[in-house]
Design a protein that fits this description.
The structure is a homoheptamer. In chain A, the strands form 2 sheets. In chain A, strands 7-8-2-5-6-9 form a 6-stranded antiparallel beta sheet, with no helix packed on it. In chain A, strands 3-4 form a two-stranded antiparallel ribbon. Helix content of chain A is about 0%, strand content about 45%. Chain A is globular. Chain A has one domain: Roll (10 Kd Chaperonin, Protein Cpn10, Chain O). Chains in contact: A-B, A-G, B-C, C-D, D-E, E-F, F-G. Chains D and E meet through β1 and β7 of D and β9 of E. β1 of chain A pairs antiparallel with β9 of chain B.
């Protein structure tokens, strides 16, 4: 099953960062509010401007992106977990 | 009786996801805030831009969509339960 | 006495839904936040866009509409109770 | 002394509704939030759009209008009490 | 020393209303939220629209205006007390 | 070291008003919320309109301005204290 | 690994200000809300206007900037700590 995000939304698969370890003890990661990393799987057609034109999406499927920890909706498609974000939640692209 | 949504609203019939079961026990689904699935039954004519033009609706009757758990109004038409959502509440289309 | 709503407002006469009954006992309807039904009696000339043009009203006198429970102002004209709503409070038209 | 409202403001003289009476006892009107009635005395030149044009006022001096209970500023000019409202606070015109 | 208000701001000198007196006792005026009266001393060049044009000021030096009690900044120039308001805080002009 | 404010921001050096004295005792100035005075040291290139054009700055280096007490960021450049304000925080120019 | 900020975002490496010392004692810096200093490492392509055009970025890689203490997301790329800010969080450029 394919998923087509609407408007300026994107479908992202989260890339889990390795937990920092000190002396073999995993430090849980609750206090830090660092961005999270993910792989873009599908993108919408872009936001509609007041002029009626669409803004071309700045990210594309395959991009490795950073995005804020809070925001987006978690969903499961064919037993795989994804995040649906708005493009504006994406901070930038890792190249 | 037919229902014609106004503006960028859509009429959706919810598709109940099967509850996850572990060892035969149904886990109630209160904590998760995953999107919900539905079938689009009717769509409005689209949002009016400041230019006076309308944005064409991105979903159409028959589309299977994901949408946020919170948002929209529940209504009953001819004894069938529906949700009235704004198109912007729709996260994307399952294809 | 006639009432001419201003801008994108409409004058609506509420259609009371029959209370659901179970075993002859009326279930009071406080918890449900379902939309309400009404008949459009008069409509304004429409919202003025930034371009100075007006958006044509999507509802007209005689339309049977659903609208959110909260919103609008109640008023009495010639001893009849009405609601004054903005067109955007109307979810759609029953046909 | 004359008063010229600015922009989309209007000067209104309130028309007191007769209190409802039951068995000769006046029921004070604190719970109801029904609109109030008034007579338009003077109107501004209208709101300026982003295009620089003005929106023509939809009400004119002499109109009998309904407006929300809350909103507007009370003022006294030549010992007469008035309300200064924005046109958008006016729900419609009684004809 | 002259003061040139910026944008849609105006410099106003407050005209103190005479306190109402009943039986020779001055009733302090804390509960009433009536507008205040003032004389316009200087005006800005007007608000800049998104088109880049300026909206011509609707008030000019010498106008006697009503304005809301709250809003504006008090200042003292050459030992005289003034108020700096935005034109939108002005309710209208007394003529 | 020079500082170039961004957009509609300005760099201002505060001019301390002399404290009012009554009978030789300095009255501390906590209750009053009068505007403050300053000298403009540097200005940005102006706010970008939706049309893509910039609004020309209304203040320039050397202007003596009044601005609200709250707002802006304090900074120290080459051991001198400055305020970085948005032009809209400036109430007007003393001439 | 390179990082390409999205839209009007910029990647900044913080320049730690030396703590003020009085008599050899470091004064911790909690009360002051002065701006912080940083070096711009990468910039986005700029904000998209309603006209569909982009606003050219006012800062570029290599600029030494001041920015507000609160705002932006901290991130670590190749073991170096960065801040991702919106250009509007930048107060100005030190030259």
């Amino acid at each position: 099953m394919k998923f087509k995000p609407l408007g300026d939304r994107i479908l992202v698969q989260r890339i889990e960062a390795e937990e920092e370890m000190r002396g073999g003890i995993v430090i849980p990661d609750t206090a830090k509010e660092k961005p999270q990393e993910g792989m873009v799987v599908a993108v919408g057609d872009g936001r509609v401007l007041d002029s009626g034109d669409r803004v071309e999406m700045a990210v594309k499927a395959g991009d490795r992106v950073l995005f804020g920890k809070y925001g987006g909706s978690e969903t499961t498609i064919d037993d795989v977990e994804y995040l649906i974000l708005r493009e504006d939640d994406v901070l930038g692209i890792l190249q």
